[in-house]
Amino acid sequence: MKRLYRSRQSCIIAGVCGGIAEYFNIDPSIVRILAVLLSIGSIGTGAIVYCVAALLIPKE
Q1: List of residues 6+ apart from 51 with CB closer than 8 A
Q2: Among 19, 33, 44, 50, which is least packed, fewest CB within 10 Å?
Q3: Which of 25, 24, 20 is nearest to 46 (CA)?
Q4: What are phi and psi of 43, to 5 degrees?
């Protein structure tokens, strides 16, 4: 069974986007761009979700 972890290899801030990219087998840059767009489009809610994910998702 596949598990979601924060990435140590493709980590910029906390490794959340890198971990999501590894889980779905896509480029981490795409996930990072989507995360930034979500944060801008939702007036900061995306940043809060990212911080919560950084706390809840275990490191690899």
Answers
A1: none
A2: 44
A3: 20
A4: 55, 45
Q: Are 49 and 55 in contact (CB under 8 A)?
A: no
State both tokens at 38: 């979500």
Q: CA 52, CA 11: separation in Å to the nearest integer?
A: 16
Total count of residues recorded for the chain: 60
**Strand (E) positions, 1-60?**
none
Q: What is the pLDDT of residues 1-58, one digit of tens each?
A: 889 999 888 888 898 999 999 999 999 999 999 999 988 988 888 888 889 999 999 9
Residue 3 near residue 57 (C-beta atoms within 8 A)? no
pLDDT of residue 56: 94
pTM: 0.84
pLDDT at 20: 93
